[in-house]
Amino acid sequence: MNNIPFVKLTATVSQWLAKETILSKLINFVHVFRVNVADKPFDDSQKKYIDTIMKLDNSKTIMLETKWEEVKVQNMSPIDLVVWQRISLEFSALKEESTDTIFVNYWYLSEIPEWVSFSFEESSVVLKVTGSHEWIVDCVVQEAWMISLYKHLIFIDYKPKLSFLSEKDKKDVIWWLQSGVNMIAASSVKKPEDVVSIRDFLEENGWEWIKIFVRLHKKEAFENIDAIIEACDGIICSYGEVVEFLWPDVTCLHVLEKVKRMWKPFMLNIQKKEYESIKWASFDAMLASYINAWLDSFMLAEDIVEEDQLQDEIIAFHDRIYDMKPSFDLLDRVDVYATLATEEENINDYLIHKTFRAARDLPVRAIICYTDTWETISKLVALKTHIPVIVFTKSDPVYRYINIFWGVKWYKISQNFNYASFKRIGKEMIRILFKWNISLDDKILILKVNEKWTPKDKDSDMINWIELHKFKNI
Asked: How many CA atoms lie within 13 A of 236 on its CB side?
């Protein structure tokens, strides 16, 4: 029995969960911590979340999810509306107390044509513009309900003047990264150019190694799904989200297959409404279907249960997915991912393919691998490896990123690391991870791919190869 869970767990840090007494009990069960500021500003409280996590275990990956520039409600108190009620929209960059006027953060309000209608996120309210003067827009309520703080406006047949990255967004991004964030999840992406704009900004400011995940929930994002997957470093999709506006039968499982074909990690977000509505038997079946499809991580929203139950629920969820063994069809990925190159075209892909086939055909207990850029690992695990992959890297960004991948146990090593220490430390890690439940004659595969090989490396002892050893001979 090994001590590596194949599928990882991502937990969203809330005010209650961020308490040190709670986090200290959860730190070994969670691989990635997500700080969600998609509907609220990043402030000192979120900074304290990050500080507490890093104090307890600075090897954890921290992902910050945000929405980029959108037109949002700025009213602090919810507003209840009735049909045919007349109400005004007014610009404000700050939160406002009023319930008589709807304040939004859109500078160009007066340019909205009279015939435009718009709705609000997670609300059935529909308003129609009847006129405007200076910074105020007059509207009439066509469909009534309630709107609340930071819910964004959805315009019908009108495109607001918005850049994907506002100046405030840019300042916030730098603050987040300086606070210890390792990755960014963008939840308002509509096209691949949005991802490119984030990446260009990161590179301009010296943060080119930061990985960008895309949270799928926009219609336009699904329409551009292939190009978006190619542009980003990973995908987050919410369970239960059927892409009814494009393909009636397409779910996150179909998106997952696309993502794994591009060698990238996939996270499934589980929100409160799904967590509570699914009976336990069918919930287990859902978990199993995604585990068998090679999901990399389950992401739990911060409000899945009441605060006083959250700690126990996260531990219980971890134990459930840890005990679920995937159904390994050891032949399917050889055909599905036959695009791996032949020896003549790409020696790296050839070695990865051969490593997978050797692990499939021989009684191998684990794979030890070194990586500079994460590409070797992403391709190897996407082939549906059924044994643990123990990974060493000298790069901190790679170290944080591969934490998310299926079946991987990762270790950061020093710049003086060489092949002799690679084998020696790998052997000790196997001994620990398998809890000593490994015999001297058990077989171990060692893979080394020179991902960034240059002529000056020709004398390096870390060359391209695959080795098969008995555990005692490593």
From this structure: 27
10 Å Cβ neighbour count for 395? 16
The residue whose two tokens read 């911060």 is 302
Closest CA to 166 of 148, 182, 188: 188
pTM for the structure as a whole: 0.84
Length of the chain in residues, anyone? 474
What residue ranges define each of the domains in the chain, with the CATH number in brackets? 8-69+164-323 (3.20.20.60), 79-156 (2.40.33.10), 332-473 (3.40.1380.20)
Closest CA to 213 of 166, 266, 151, 171: 266
DSSP at 342: P
Strand order in the sheet with 86-91: 101-104, 86-91, 136-143, 126-133, 117-120, 153-156
Taking phi over 0 as left and psi of -120 to 50 as alpha, with beta for the rest, 362 belongs to beta
275, containing H or E segment: helix 272-277
pLDDT digits (tens, 9 = 90+) for 408-422: 988 888 877 777 777
Contact of 186 with 198, CB cutoff 8 Å: yes
Q: How confident is the model at residue 1 (pLDDT cuts 50, 70, 90)?
A: very low
The closest of 158, 186, 162, 159 to 172, measured between CA atoms, is 186
Phi and psi at 29, nearest 5°, equal -100, -20
